[in-house]
Structure formats: structure tokens, C-alpha cells
Amino acid sequence: MRNISRRDFLKGSGAALAVPFIIPSSALGLNGTVPPSERITMGFIGVGGQGGGHLLGGAWTYIPGGYSARPDVQVLAVCDIRRERRERATQRVNENYAQMPGRGDKPCGAYVDFRQVLARNDIDAVLIATPAHWHAIMAIMAAEAGKDIYCEKPTACTIHEAQAVAAAVRRYGRVYQAGTQQRSEYGGKFRRACEFVRSGRIGRLKEIYAYRDGGAIKWPTRFGPGRPVPDDLDWDLYLGPAPWLPYDGNTGSHRFDIGELNWGQHHYDIVQWAADADETGPVELFMDEGRTAYRYASGVTVFGKPYPGEKVGGNGGACFVGTNGRIAVDRDNLISDPPDIVREPLRPDEAHLYRSDSHSGNFLECVRTRQRTICHEGIAHRSASALLLGGIEKQLQRTSKWNPKREQFVGDDEANRMLSIAQRPPWHI
Predict the structure, then answer these.
(1) What is the pTM assigned to this prediction?
(2) Cβ proximity of 107 and 26 under 8 Å
(3) What pLDDT sits at residue 21?
(4) Greatest CA span in the chain, whole angstroms?
């Protein structure tokens, strides 16, 4: 048979039928719409506070109306262990799409089990915003199912999990974005701070004050009698790989104590970026005045506490101290001492880092181009690991040597046993 173009086919079909063949403008991408074939199809796993904000819009997502309002995205699935939450979110997505040209032809479905979302061949990417103990396993299973992944922090709860996520993403050729959005958002303050530091504006970098201590997940050790599990809740699926415990009415994202992990990964992500350590980690850990401290092969020392007397840096940032000055940055401020360090624009011959002005936009663009995101799996692995190493150090309370290439403690079997934790069957890494 002779190959014919889509346009020739439509022209021939119209002539044969002798009636006008009308194609909606939305199907052709006219009037500012994106044709269905060009939209990225997504599933959302966990639609509580953070996940619901990503889906429908929230102050911390920087997406008016959420992903579901983007013309280049079609949300096909919402998954949550709470019936009322998933059904409400699904209804809102479908109501919104009913008002948007060409969007109501593919309704969004509601699911309780995330594996059903991963099994759909028509979904390109998933956004994971569940409680932290699920992040690594879901990300790995999503990669195995051929999905691209946006995963909220903490991206892992153990170093073994962080390693496994990075390995799975690379093995299956997926795109991964960690939810450490400070590299993209907040007017570029964090990127510029790291560029100034890496350009030598403060001389040789000596110390970094991360404001946050190391962290580790902690399972409950004591609990009282359980309560009846509501009919609209899948409690066993909520627990997943966590140890079994009775339902107590709490299904929040912080039901299990994740200490500094959630907030702290923001801080250590910027520490790693400024220290040019995205592909490595510290070589020594020790305690300093009851807080964790790290030393890199470069000689830079990181303290898990505020810089003395400095208030800037606590809101997701850090303070960088060099031989010729210091820079402090957080979500609201970028300052330096002396002040001219950050006032003079970056010169062409200075360090220019990966630039993204939208974390969600960067993820979606990389889904299309297959390029690596600004917070790809390797970056997420190393920033999570830096934080988790501090959690191990707090348990050991002694100086430890770390080999960042082999990702093992040097000659320390006790410490190496802390790189992973047991998981409740049948879930495992």
C-alpha cells in the first residue's frame, strides 16, 4: 500500500463522505492549546498537603492551579489510601478539565493502590508525595514500570535506599526530579549564592553552616491500644514497608519520626551545590557541640548548626565562610560580608551553574528532551546521603571515616550496618 500522510487521509475521507470533516481546534493545538499527542500524561501518588498542592495549586508549588492546570499536562490518575481525599481530588481535576477545551475526553481516574497507576501504559510520569517511608520503593517501582518520576523529599530514608533509587533510574533510562526546588525557585537566590562561592568571591571556601543537623527515620518504639480502622482507609497499604503498628488516627506524612530528613535535605542540597560535591560526599564525620559536622576531601568543614549570630540561612539555606568574606542565603535573603560580594553581577569568566526558573517546568522539559533535571537522581542521592550520614553519626557519637567513592564507612562494621533498615514483607528494595 502507498504511504499517505495524515492530511491526505483526512482530505480523502472528507471527499468520500461528501460532508465537512471538522477537527476541533484543540486537537490541532490552535488558539493557545496543546494537542493531546503533545501533553505529558501524569499520575499523582499521594494527594495530601504537598501532593494536593502539586496537583491543584498551592503556595509552595509555584504553579498556579497546579500541574492539572498546565496546558502541556494531562492528569490521568490520582492515588491515595484515603477514599475521601482521592475522590475529592479526582472530582476537582475532572471538573476543571470539563471547562478546558479538549481536556474532558480523557477523565482522571481514582486509585487506592499505586501499582494500578504504574500498570497504566498511557501514563508517562508520576509525582510521588506520600509519607517518606514509601518514597524510595515507589520511585524504584515507577522506574521499573517505565515512568519518569518527580519525588518529594526526603528522597530516601537510608543510604541504601538512595543508592538503589539512583541505580534504578539509570538502569531503566528514566528522568528523575527531586522535590528540592530551591535550585529552581526563589528568584535564583540559591543558584547565585553557589555561583559566587564557586567563583571565589569569598576567597577559598573554609566552612559551611547548614543550620540543620543530620537525620534518620525512627520507627515508634512504644504505642498504646489501636483504634478501629475507618472504612475509607487502607491502613496496611499506608504502612507498607514500615513495621506493623495499630491504627491510632494518624496518617500524616510525619506519622513516623523523620527528624531532620524532610526539611534538612533542602539545606544539604545547597551545601553540596556550593561545595561542588554533587558527585561525592564527606570523608569524615564528627560531633561538634552536640551537633553533627562533616569534613570534605577539599578541607571544607560543614557544621550542622547556624553561623554564630547569623539569622539568614535558617529558612532552607546556609552560610558560607571563606578566607575573604562570607555569604548567607535562604528563601528570603542573599547577603554577604563585605556587601559588594553579592552586589556585583556574575561575570562571563566566573562559574555559571545549571539554571532553571521553574522546578516543575524543568522536570517536564526534561521528560520531553530526555536530559537530566536540575535535581536528578545522582544529586538527590548525594544530598540525601549527606544528611543521612549525620543521622548515623548522631547514633555513633564518635569520629567516623567515610569513603564517598565506595559509599562505605572505613573499617567500621557497626556503622556500615546502619546504611539500611529492615522492611516489612513483601516490600523491599
Answers:
(1) 0.90
(2) no
(3) 44
(4) 85
